[in-house]
């Protein structure tokens, strides 16, 4: 994924904190440190949108680090130990999204309810996953949508989903009723809901794919960022992983900051950010709307050409050949 030359170049870009810092120093940065060690160095009230994708209560390796499954009680203690200390970074109008699975979701709700206003719980379909012979296949995850107060940003029109029309009703004049008839098909724009079934977990042929074991789709982050921030707002991710939050924030004209303990993932983040300066498409999002799965053939020609170019960038990313950033 990274050549030795790239690894050295991107490591030099990473940020490390040794004391309290000004907000300006954190804008558009990747912090390569342990979150627990630098929480007290972070400025107060500098975050407009906080996206948290912590380790779920599962035993899993994350590059050079690993997380060990705990009892629910132990996981609740672990979660609360850093979550409460993170909240001072939020602006009074900030929004917070917290990811979890069915094992951790209850713990998250209980901890968050003590500090924030829970607005909703999003459930998204993760279509990948192993089948089970003695249980239901686990193919969904939760995202808790919370706010600091009742004064918050939510741009519903920015996250509408374009669906193919199954029942093309028409009015008394024979005109489409709440849908559009186009040369490429019949579609309806629908308001966003808390059930997301249009996402694909990044797989090998997708431009955004990395070897991070719990990478979230860029499309998922695009929904969150477009709905709950404005251009120029700062998006913060304290468990950055391979950088998807920062990458999508950059593509959508937001400022970004993230913390990741693993240096290799930090370097991969910086490489993806460098690539985003040349290729800012997001698979499944074009013309200002999100598209349901398997509709690429219906999207405009520019989208198809963009995806072709993006596929070439993805190949470079996987093979370590991209030379974009200086």
What's the layout of helices and strands?
Layout: H1 4-11, H2 23-26, E1 29-31, H3 35-38, E2 47-52, E3 60-62, E4 65-67, H4 72-86, E5 90-100, H5 105-112, E6 117-125, E7 140-147, E8 161-164, E9 180-182, E10 185-190, E11 195-196, H6 218-228, E12 234-237, H7 244-251, E13 255-259, H8 263-276, E14 285-286, E15 289-291, H9 301-319
Number of strands: 15
Assess the beta-strand content as a share of residues: 15-25%
Helix segment tally: 9
Text of the CATH class: Alpha Beta
Summary of the model, kept short:
It is built from nine helices and 15 strands.
Write up this protein.
The protein is α/β, with parallel strands linked by helices. Helix content is 28%, strand content 22%. It has a single domain, classed as Vaccinia Virus protein VP39 (Rossmann fold). The chain has nine helices and 15 strands. The chain has an eight-stranded mixed sheet with strand order 1-13-12-2-5-7-6-11, with helices on both faces. A five-stranded mixed sheet has the order 9-10-8-15-14. It has a two-stranded antiparallel sheet with strand order 3-4. A hairpin with a 2-residue loop joins strand 9 and strand 10 (185-190). Helix 1 packs across helix 8, helix 6 crosses helix 7 and helix 7 (244-251) runs parallel beside helix 8. The longest helix has 19 residues, at 301-319. The relative contact order is 0.16. The model is unreliable at 301-326 (pLDDT under 50).
């Amino acid at each position: 994924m990274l050549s030795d030359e790239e690894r050295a170049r991107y490591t030099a870009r990473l940020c490390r904190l040794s004391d309290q810092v000004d907000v300006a120093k954190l804008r558009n940065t990747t912090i390569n440190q342990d979150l627990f060690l630098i929480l007290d160095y972070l400025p107060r009230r500098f975050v407009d949108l906080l996206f948290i994708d912590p380790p779920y209560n599962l035993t899993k390796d994350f590059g050079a680090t690993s997380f060990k499954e705990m009892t629910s009680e132990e996981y609740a203690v672990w979660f609360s130990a850093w979550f409460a200390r993170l909240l001072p970074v939020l602006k009074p109008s900030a929004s917070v999204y917290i990811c979890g699975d069915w094992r951790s979701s209850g713990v998250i709700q209980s901890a968050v309810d003590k500090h924030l206003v829970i607005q909703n719980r999003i459930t998204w379909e993760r279509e990948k996953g192993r089948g089970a012979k003695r249980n239901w296949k686990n193919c969904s995850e939760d995202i808790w949508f919370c706010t600091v107060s009742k004064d918050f940003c939510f741009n519903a029109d920015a996250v509408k989903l374009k669906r193919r029309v199954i029942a093309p009703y028409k009015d008394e004049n024979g005109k489409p009723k709440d849908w559009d008839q186009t040369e490429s098909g019949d579609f309806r724009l629908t308001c966003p809901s808390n059930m997301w079934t249009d996402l694909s977990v990044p797989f090998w042929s997708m431009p955004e794919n990395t070897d991070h074991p719990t990478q979230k789709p860029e499309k998922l982050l695009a929904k969150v960022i477009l709905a709950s921030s404005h251009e120029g707002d700062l998006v913060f991710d304290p468990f950055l992983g391979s950088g998807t939050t920062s990458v999508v924030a950059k593509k959508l004209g937001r400022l970004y900051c993230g913390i990741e303990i693993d240096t290799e993932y930090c370097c991969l983040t910086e490489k993806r950010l460098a690539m985003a300066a040349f290729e800012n498409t997001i698979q499944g999002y074009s013309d200002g709307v999100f598209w349901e799965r398997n509709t690429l053939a219906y999207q405009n020609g520019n989208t198809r050409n963009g995806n072709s170019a993006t596929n070439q960038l993805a190949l470079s990313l996987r093979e370590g050949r991209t030379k974009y950033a200086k």
